[in-house]
Specification:
single chain; alpha+beta; Rossmann fold; two-stranded antiparallel ribbon; elongated
């Protein structure tokens, strides 16, 4: 039996190694008609498959490889060009002369296609129908359109129809999505009410900001109150010295001689004796009045201190005068601070909420529950 003849107008040679039943087969084809003859299962169809493997990169996979072989290769010689298709384990390559092609997937490298320039009609198997005789008119028309390169119009029309179908499908999908979105939109009809709620929340937020600012202002008032109380305590300590300073000022006026003779030690001793005498006199007065005992004792202590600091009395005198002036001014300021404290305390009581903003406890001014915040404890004092 034989395979159908095929026509070749160039010199062609085929070397097959380990492809199906062919372990090592070489065929020289002649220009013109070539017919492969042999008994059944002698490998005639395998030759065409090997030729297709080189020309079309088909079949794929490893089923065509000879069992037990490690290397399968088919070499096609066309005139002076040699094309090798080779597969070793996981290595799958085309080779054209010295150039090797590896990454080509299921396609054939373009350089190989240009050299081979084979079409499906160039290779027919034994059971293939006669060329175009059994084809439908449409298939014949498509074939000649392809020869005349008119298939591009058919491909264009097909592409346009395909694009239109895709667009119609996309349009239907978009319409369906719009319908779904409208249905989903019905779930959000509450947004108008939510918008009003958001506006109310914004108003509450502004009120909260104002409250925070008021709390911050209250903290500033409390800090001012604490500072004022510290200054008040300082003034209280200084005012204790006001009366002794007045007495000392009167004493300095009586002791005008001290200003001239301050540097003379004898004069200092005399003054000290005078102060001792005055101290004794004051001590006698302390026995007469228990009420003025502390003031006299402070005066005696001040006199004892003055006895040791006699050399700097003149310089400190001017300082005492300045202190007196500042004390009077501070007294005026203290009165103003007292009024401000009373006003701020009243304002704080008016602004203080039932819930302490500092510790979070409920504040009950009329019972024993105390707020953790030091400010409330301070104000309750």
């Amino acid at each position: 039996m034989g395979s159908p003849p095929f026509f070749i107008n160039i010199y062609m040679k085929l070397d097959i190694q380990n492809f199906q039943s062919h372990k090592d087969t070489t065929l020289d084809f002649h220009p013109g008609v070539n017919v492969i003859i042999g008994s059944s299962d002698s490998g005639k169809t395998a030759i065409l498959r090997a030729l297709r493997w080189v020309i079309y990169n088909k079949p794929t996979g490893d089923a065509f490889r000879r069992i037990g072989s490690k290397k399968t290769s088919v070499q096609l010689s066309l005139n002076e060009q040699e094309i090798i298709r080779e597969k070793i384990a996981s290595t799958n390559v085309y080779q054209l002369g010295d150039k090797v092609f590896k990454a080509f997937g299921n396609d054939v490298p373009d350089e190989i296609k240009q050299i081979v320039n084979f079409d499906d009609v160039n290779l027919q198997q034994q059971l293939d129908s006669p060329y175009l005789l059994s084809s439908t008119p449409g298939e014949v028309a498509r074939h000649f359109n392809k020869i005349a390169h008119l298939e591009k119009i058919d491909n264009g029309n097909s592409s346009i129809q395909k694009t239109l179908r895709k667009l119609n499908s996309s349009l239907d999908e978009v319409v369906s999505q719009i319908t779904n979105k409208k249905e989903q939109l019905q779930k959000y009809v509450f947004l108008d009410d939510m918008e009003r709620d958001v506006e109310c929340l914004e108003v509450y937020e502004e009120s909260h900001i104002i409250t925070q600012q008021q709390i911050k202002q209250i903290k500033q008032y409390v800090s001012a109150i604490l500072n004022a109380r510290d200054e008040q305590e300082l003034c209280r300590r200084k005012t204790k010295l006001e009366k002794p300073v007045d007495e000392l000022t009167s004493l300095y006026k009586q002791r005008t001689g001290i200003r001239v003779k301050i540097k003379q030690i004898q004069t200092i001793v005399d003054d000290v004796n005078g102060l001792v005498y005055r101290r004794e006199k004051v001590t006698k007065k302390l026995k007469q009045s228990e009420k003025t005992f502390l003031q006299v004792e402070n005066l005696v202590n001040d006199i004892n201190i003055l006895e040791k600091e006699k050399s700097s009395l003149e310089q400190r005198k001017s300082g005492f005068k300045a202190i007196l002036k500042r004390l009077r001014l501070f007294q005026t300021e203290m009165e103003g601070c007292t009024l401000a404290i009373e006003r701020d305390e009243k304002l704080f009581q008016d602004l203080m909420p039932d819930i302490c903003p500092l510790c979070g406890n409920t504040v009950f001014p009329d019972n024993d529950l105390q707020c953790d915040a030091s400010v409330v404890d301070l104000l309750k004092k």
